[in-house]
Specification:
Length: 365
C-alpha cells in the first residue's frame, strides 16, 4: 500500500474459505432453508449468549420482525433514541406504532435510562436499545424493562462482538437484531441480518415469522412473511464468525492508539463504558468545526463519515411527529452537528493508522 493511497472508511475481508464455501453451497443446489442457515442461526445465538436465533434478510426487517413477534401495533408506543440509524425508528412506524424519541447519554451516545423513565406511558410496549457505534447500552435499560414489564429489543446492528462485564451484546434484552451489511463488523457477502432471543417462548415464533408463519410446508399458523437469508450467505457468515473476535480485538487496538494519541489535542473523544469491550464499529470524534476537520482529513487522503448528520426526529418523514421540530432533543441535535467518524476497520495497516493519527494531530483546532 503506497503511503499516498486514499484510506477508505472500510475494506472487505474476502478469503479462500469464503470462496470455497460459496462454490460448495452453489453446487449443492440447496440454496435456501438448508443446513447452513440452521447452523449459522444456532452458532450466532450461541456466540452472543442467546438461546436461539435465525438469520434473516437484513437488519431493518429484523427489527420489524422483532416488533411483530412482540405483538406491537397500532396505538402502541415504542421508546427509541433519536440518535441512531433511521431503521431503528422507521421499523416502529412500519408496524403502525408510534416512536417516542429520547436522548442519548452524553458520554456514551447510547439511550439514556433516565430519559426512558420520563418517556414511559401506559401505552409503552417496547424499548429499542441501540448499541450505537459498538458501545454496549447501559444495563439499567434492561432493568427498567424487566421491572416495568416492557420488552427490550437490542438493535445490535453495530455491536457484533462487544460485551459488558463479560456478557455479549445480544444477550441482555428479550430480542436482539443484527445487520450483516457489508460495512458492519461481520458480513455475509450481501445484505443480511439475524434475530436472536433470550426467551424460550419467542424462539418458535421468530423462526416461523421469517418463513410465512409456517409450521409445515403448506400450513401457515401465524402471520409471517419471507425474511429468510440464502444458504450461500449463511455459509459465508459462518466463515466470517471465526474471525470476529480477532477483528474486534484489532478494532480495539486501533481505537486504543487513537485514544492515547489524541488525549492532549482538546478534541472530544469517545468514552468506553467501564467494564465494556467496545465493538468499535465506528470511532466518532466531536469537533467544533466539522467541515474544516473533514476538509483537512480529505487533504491528507483520509476518508471520514458522519454517523449521523440528521437526528431521526428531524428527518422529513417525522415532520408531523409531535417531536419533529428543532429543540425537542437539544443534546442529540447539538451532537449531530459535530460528530465525525474516522476509519477504524480491522484491515487498516499499521502505517495507515500512523497516517490517520498524524493527520488528526496536525488539525489546528
Ligand atoms: C443501528 C442500525 N440499525 C439497523 C440497521 C439496518 O440494517 P440493514 O442495513 O442491514 O437493514 C443499521 C444498518 O446500518 C444500523 O446501523
Amino acid at each position: 500500500m503506497a503511503s499516498t493511497d486514499r484510506i477508505p472508511m472500510g475494506r472487505m475481508h474476502i478469503d479462500d474459505e469464503m470462496r470455497a464455501t460459496t462454490a460448495r453451497i452453489l453446487d449443492s443446489g440447496a440454496w435456501i432453508k438448508g443446513p447452513e442457515s440452521k447452523a449459522f442461526g444456532a452458532e450466532w445465538a450461541e456466540y452472543c449468549g442467546a438461546i436461539s436465533g435465525v438469520p434473516c434478510s437484513n437488519g431493518s426487517v429484523a427489527l420489524i420482525a422483532a416488533l411483530q413477534v412482540l405483538g406491537i401495533g397500532p396505538g402502541d408506543e415504542v421508546i427509541v433514541p433519536s440518535h441512531t440509524y433511521i431503521a431503528s425508528a422507521t421499523c416502529i412506524n412500519l408496524v403502525q406504532a408510534t416512536p417516542i424519541f429520547v436522548e442519548v447519554e452524553e458520554d456514551y451516545y447510547t439511550i439514556d435510562p433516565d430519559a426512558i423513565e420520563g418517556a414511559i406511558t401506559d401505552r409503552t410496549r417496547a424499548i429499542i436499545a441501540v448499541h450505537l457505534y459498538g458501545q454496549p447500552v447501559d444495563p439499567r435499560v434492561f432493568e427498567i424493562g424487566r421491572s416495568r414489564g416492557i420488552p427490550v429489543i437490542e438493535d445490535s446492528a453495530q455491536g457484533h462482538g462487544g460485551s459488558l462485564n463479560g456478557q455479549r451484546i445480544g444477550s441482555f434484552g428479550d430480542i436482539a437484531t443484527f445487520s450483516f451489511f457489508p460495512s458492519k463488523n461481520m458480513a455475509v457477502g450481501g445484505d443480511g441480518g439475524a434475530i436472536i432471543t433470550t426467551r424460550p417462548d419467542l424462539t418458535e415464533h421468530i423462526r416461523m415469522f421469517i418463513d410465512h408463519g409456517r409450521s409445515d410446508k403448506y400450513r401457515n399458523d401465524i402471520l409471517g412473511t419471507n425474511f429468510r437469508l440464502s444458504e450461500i450467505q449463511c455459509g459465508i457468515g459462518r466463515v466470517q464468525l471465526k474471525h470476529l473476535d480477532g477483528w474486534v480485538n484489532r478494532r480495539n487496538k486501533i481505537a486504543d492508539r487513537y485514544l492515547s494519541s489524541f488525549e492532549e489535542l482538546g478534541l472530544n473523544l469517545p468514552v468506553v463504558r467501564p467494564s465494556a469491550v467496545h465493538a468499535w464499529h465506528q470511532f466518532v470524534l466531536r469537533v467544533a468545526d466539522r467541515e474544516a476537520f473533514i476538509k483537512h482529513m480529505d487533504s491528507k487522503g483520509i476518508s471520514t463519515g458522519i454517523h449521523y448528520p440528521i437526528p431521526c426526529h428531524l428527518q422529513p418523514i417525522f415532520a408531523s411527529h409531535p417531536q419533529g421540530n428543532l429543540g425537542s432533543l437539544p443534546f442529540t441535535e447539538n451532537l449531530c452537528d459535530h460528530i465525525v467518524s474516522i476509519p477504524v476497520f480491522p484491515l487498516l495497516e499499521d502505517e495507515e493508522v500512523d497516517r490517520i493519527i498524524d493527520a488528526v494531530c496536525s488539525f489546528k483546532l
